[in-house]
Amino acid sequence: MNQSQVSTEPLIRNISDTACWAAIYRARETDRPDALFRDPFARRLAGARGEHIANTIPDGNKNLWTWVTRTYLFDQFVAEQVKEGVDMVINLAAGLDARPYRMALPSSLQWIEVDLPEILTYKEEILSGQKTACALERVQLDLANISARRELFEKLSKRAKRVLIVSEGFVTYLAPDEVGALAKDLAAPPSFQRWVLDMMSPGLLKMLQKKIGSHLSQAGAPFQFGPPEGPDFLIPFGWKPLDVRSLFKTAGRLQRLPFFLRLMSFLPESKGPQGSRFWSGICLFGKKKK
After folding, report:
1. Between 20 and 30 A from 110 (CA), which of 47, 63, 85, 165?
2. 282, 72 in Cβ contact below 8 A?
3. d(C-alpha 54, C-alpha 38), whole Å
């Protein structure tokens, strides 16, 4: 990306650019001597576009802790579920995620990445020749295509006994009715047993819409999902919350919060719906028994 492109293009051109944005924060954490995780591919994947977004978007470099903690918690959930017997991970809207390359995963694990053709083709070029820890497949698919995703879910379900769905940084961009429809589709296949996703409160959603919403809306990717019910939103669609881990509390424990927020992280956090509070968390859901 040259200087003329920087000055003439929108800061975020499309939803795929948000993957570059996320990757640069993984790169910065990797550079730390006390890194919580290491992603040696993140800087190449982020490219100049990811650096430019992080340095330009309002408070882009002040909220590094949120991105790093999100990645850390998803890593933890993936590792725990694989240890408990998951034999397939389906990464929806996988973006520039490199977990099959950087995590210690069993070679028998099937890892399926699903995303738009452009972003997967770009990632494939960057990671060409790199070895994965497990069996990796990429499926080029627009997840808004309901019939196509149902067909894919049904096909993949037959290949595994216990599937974990991962959707990091995905449902935030969907409207509530779209999240509900996706949840129902994911609840249908028998082997789809666990789902881990990130969720925010209505208060945080409103704040982010005000601060950076114009950049995302211009790219056709506005933040939309911050349900008043919190994780219980998914219960009517076949999923019950099993474990909810707060980004703020986790970042405090990991010493990733800015100094002025550290003391606040020791305060008790309220349970249940978070309403107007600025809350986000990573949630593990299990299939409801019929």
Report:
1. 47
2. no
3. 19
Q: 135-140 and 110-115: which strand pairing? A: parallel
Tens digit of pLDDT per residue, the chain (290 long)?
A: 444 444 467 787 877 788 898 999 999 999 999 999 999 999 999 999 899 988 888 877 888 999 999 999 999 999 999 999 999 999 999 999 999 999 999 999 999 999 999 999 999 999 999 999 999 999 999 999 999 999 999 999 999 999 999 999 999 999 999 999 999 999 999 999 999 999 999 999 999 999 887 777 777 778 899 999 999 999 999 999 999 999 999 999 999 998 778 777 767 777 777 777 889 999 999 998 76
Residue type, 253: R
Task: Indicate which CATH number applies to the domain containing 260.
Answer: 3.40.50.150
Write out the residue range of the structural domain in which residue 120 sits.
64-287
In a domain, 268, yes or no: yes
**Within a domain: 58:** no
Cβ atoms 193, 163 nearer than 8 A: yes
6, 60, 152, 237 from 56: Cα distances, Å: 10, 7, 38, 38
Place of tokens 């990464």: 91
